[in-house]
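Lab intake sheet, docking and co-folding queue.

SAMPLE TYPE: protein with bound small molecule
LIGAND NAME: magnesium ion
LIGAND FORMAT: SMILES
REQUESTED OUTPUT: full 3D complex as structure tokens
PRIORITY: normal
SUBMITTED BY: R.K., bench team

The fields below were copied directly from the construct record.
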Amino acid sequence: MMPKQDVIPEQTAVSWPIVMSVSMAGMRRRFSRAMITMVGVVLAIAFLCYMLLNETFVQSMIAEGSDDLNILLQNANVDILSGGGTDQMTVLLIGLTLLTSLVGIINAMLMAVTERVREIGTLKCLGATDQFVVRTYFVESAVQGVCGSALGMVLGLVVSMVVNLKTYGWFALKTFPAGGVVVALLVSLGAGAVLSVVAAIIPAYMAARKQPVEALRVEE
Amino acid sequence: MISCSGVTKVYVMGKEEVHALRGVSIDIEQGEYVSIMGPSGSGKSTLFNMVGGLDTPTTGEVQVAGCRLADLNSSQLAWFRCRKIGFIFQSFNLIPTMSALENVAIPRVFAGETPRAAREAARRVLDRVGLGHRLDHLPSQVSGGQQQRIAIARALVNEPLIVLADEPTGNLDLHTGEEIIDLLNEMKANLGVTIITATHDMKMLSCSDKIVRIEDGSVKRVDTQADVNVKVGTIDGETVL
Ligand SMILES: Nc1ncnc2c1ncn2[C@@H]1O[C@H](COP(=O)(O)OP(=O)(O)OP(=O)(O)O)[C@@H](O)[C@H]1O
Ligand SMILES: [Mg+2]
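RESULT FIELD (auto-filled):
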């Protein structure tokens, strides 16, 4: 009827695409929770993207070498001689923003674990492995991170375009650094994705470590 | 098929030791309907957890179908729980973000089936428990009795050897509780699955093949169906619960 213990197999792993669809369905029905996690990512990535884009715009405009444009650049306090490089304060500020965002995502994901202790316990009773639980939290965080970064990227681009058009007028379009803009957008998206996956490490393993007996004792 | 021998469980909390089970030995045969009765705190849930591979005894041994659960690693335990045990809980424990169909399908996905085939199987079992018309409802959109039916479908979808139902009627009104007991009984008759319930509910007794009474972590008495029929008149008079 049942295999002897030495041949009881290990539980089969649930493949990534299936984990993905389970996670996505969960997030759809818990949309507001997903939004809260995303807001932190959106703002941080928008800021990062905005700073990266401004840098590319300025570089491209300095390279243009037009006198009229140089006056505009000087008015905007850009240090043309040093090549308009981002100063250390700005780098620090970007770093701090990303760090704050990281802590925010970790916090939101930990809350998601605590809220769902009972659910995790139940899934383990039904045959979920630790690996499945880990995967669902990584997928959830990654999806939120990528969506959040995409929104942040768009927000950063819009704000940057508005500001640059206002400051430099048609020069902003004439010297539009298409290649640099694409790189800035991709870097922002990548940063958000990495951030959210890194943030999921601790919550995911905490979730997987929950023992069903303890989890089921938790009252809602 | 299930054999517990000398099972003890001691919880150590600081300096205090809680003896949840003090040497429980019982044997349960394939296809039996066993009711475990006992006052609150007597160790019913603790015993269930041992049989379901959720917890390990402090001393003693639990064997299911000749297999010592203590020898299994966590992945093998997941395999065992997935295919051999169906869990039913007092508070239903459906996944709130999954529809009835998805809730019932998930154990089959864990067993390695494709989502499409899993949903097909889930549909059949939901039909069987009378919820074929509620497939796409979320747990919050159906009644307590219906939630428990979904949970029963979920417990049965992988055709387990054993269904462990810890106070399955505890959160239901009298009438709905009876319907749930009838359903469990019908599943036992049709599928030959072993059903073990913990209960305070006298009505559970009439359909039990075996009644195990636990008090303070020890088995006080084991009655078979024959005993029950004789004693049914006196049970109400006893201060069992
Ligand atoms: N994790 C734990 N730590 C400490 N003590 C525990 C733990 N789990 C259970 N106990 C104790 O073990 C004893 C048996 O508990 P159990 O939950 O098995 O009782 P029960 O018969 O299921 O009760 P009820 O009918 O209320 O569900 C109780 O005294 C309980 O306090
Ligand atoms: Mg209990």
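REVIEWER NOTE: The longest strand of chain B covers residues 16-28.
SIGN-OFF: pending second check by T.M.
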